[in-house]
Design brief:
Blueprint (H helix, E strand, L loop, with lengths): L1 E5 L9 E6 L3 H11 L4 E7 H17 L4 E6 L8 H13 L6 E7 L1 H13 L6 E5 L2 H7 L4 E6 L2 E8 L4 E5 L8 H17 L2 H9 L1 H6 L2 H21 L14 H10 L6 H18 L5 H13 L12 H9 L4 E2 L2 E9 L2 E9 H10 L3
Parallel strand pairs: 2-9, 3-4, 3-5, 5-6
Antiparallel strand pairs: 1-2, 7-8, 10-11, 11-12
The chain binds nicotinamide-adenine-dinucleotide.
The site of nicotinamide-adenine-dinucleotide has 30 residues, from helix 2, helix 4, helix 5, strand 8 and helix 6.
Length: 364
């Protein structure tokens, strides 16, 4: 069992703990009882997670005397919109939730982002706790307080910064995670390796057999390392004014691909393609050696993540989405590029034409 503290005292939010381990639901119940963040708890989850784990989580919490109710969303990215948030808020209002109520996000990044967003605006803000159940959410989206939902033309256009009161990462949830979703989460871990900890790339590659077996000890180590990297960056720059932007490595092209594919490409797959694009651009702009780019591409392939953009995706459609991205400035796009593995920087002047050529060259 690992406990990692996110220190935010001097910033906008209170510090909180990330609890990481196996079978830690009892600990969740204990800490909720002890801290009294809510007089009533609403577990927000999706239909898939609710079916697999909802009863167990509600039972454990209920046994400690906590008042717990459940609220199910349809599963998947298409739920990550403002209408879902309105529905959740309406359900909360109908069930008599008030400012003493608290939310528990039980699910992947979609549930986490929607729940955090609703918690930040329901009655001008109520507490929430993150209980991530996908690998991606355990290493990334549950930490750091970025919340948000999509609008039809772009991802995460509506959102807030709202830190959870605590994060509980129970590795046992990963037992039921489908293989594609597991691989999806590896993309964000690869990202940490590329921007911050090149040794992590080596450990992932040499630990592939343990990953395939979903060895819990190995997973706990890798998840804890990832959480430490993210929390350190968030502590320095909670609201993404500077350093935190490096966490968007691979996400500029990634978000455009994800939306352009109508979410047929998952978030992790899109980020893997985006990371590949960012390393190609880094090389073409003279920052990264061909050898380093090849090495990073080989890690992406080794993890079973895609490296080619589906030919059916329209390049102009992808470009149009890039131009609407939050990271755009004039005729250039802000990209996180690399000088070396572990040495990222934000480049504000990548010409759109070079991005177009790179996308075309990456097509199958
Ligand atoms: P997701 O939440 O859609 O979950 C993927 C699928 O796995 C869903 O069908 C879900 O029902 C299912 N699932 C979840 N847990 C399961 C389990 N234990 N067993 C079986 N099935 C399970 O997707 P995701 O990949 O977790 O998250 C992607 C989202 O996260 C994207 O919207 C992305 O923008 C967001 N994100 C946010 C941040 C942030 O900082 N807020 C960071 C990275 C990604």
């Amino acid at each position: 069992m690992n406990r990692i503290k996110v220190h935010l005292e001097r910033k906008y939010s209170a510090s909180y703990d990330i609890h990481i381990g196996r079978g830690i639901l009892d600990r969740l119940a204990l800490i909720l009882s002890k801290n009294g963040w809510g007089s009533r708890y609403f577990i927000v989850t999706d239909a898939v997670v609710s079916q697999l784990h909802g009863d167990r989580v509600a039972d454990v919490l209920g046994r400690t005397g906590l008042a717990v109710e459940r609220l199910d969303l349809p599963a998947g990215e298409t739920s990550k919109n403002i209408q879902t948030c309105v529905n959740v808020a309406e359900q909360l209002a109908q069930r008599g939730a008030d400012r003493t109520s608290a939310l528990i996000a039980l699910g992947g990044g979609v549930v986490g982002d929607v729940t955090g967003f609703v918690a930040s605006i329901f009655m001008r803000g109520i507490p929430h706790v993150q209980v991530p159940t996908t690998l991606l959410a355990q290493v990334d989206s549950s930490i750091g307080g970025k919340t948000g939902v999509d609008v039809p033309s772009a991802k995460n256009m509506l959102g807030t910064f709202c830190q959870p009161r605590a994060v509980f990462i129970d590795i046992d949830f990963l037992e039921t995670l489908p293989a594609r979703e597991f691989t999806n989460g590896l993309a964000e871990i690869v990202k940490y390796g590329m921007i911050e900890d090149p040794d992590l790339l080596e450990d992932l590659t040499s630990g592939m057999e343990a990953l395939d077996r979903r060895d819990k000890r190995f997973l706990e180590t890798i998840i804890s390392r990832s959480c430490r990297i993210k929390k350190t960056i968030v502590e320095i720059d909670e609201t993404e004014r500077g350093l935190r932007r490096i966490l968007n490595f691979g996400h500029t092209v990634g978000h455009a691909l994800e939306a352009e594919s109508s979410y047929a490409l998952s978030h992790g797959e899109s980020v893997a393609l985006g990371m590949n694009a960012a390393t190609v651009l880094s090389e073409r702009l003279g920052y990264l050696s061909a050898e380093d780019r090849e090495h990073m591409l080989s890690v992406i392939r080794h993890m079973g993540l895609p490296d080619r953009i589906p030919a059916g995706l329209d390049t102009e459609g992808i470009m149009a989405r890039l131009k609407r991205d939050k990271k755009k400035a004039g005729e250039s796009i802000h990209f996180v590029l690399l000088k070396r593995p572990g040495m990222p920087f934000v480049n504000g002047g990548v010409p759109l034409e070079l991005v177009r050529e790179t996308i075309e060259a990456m097509k199958t």
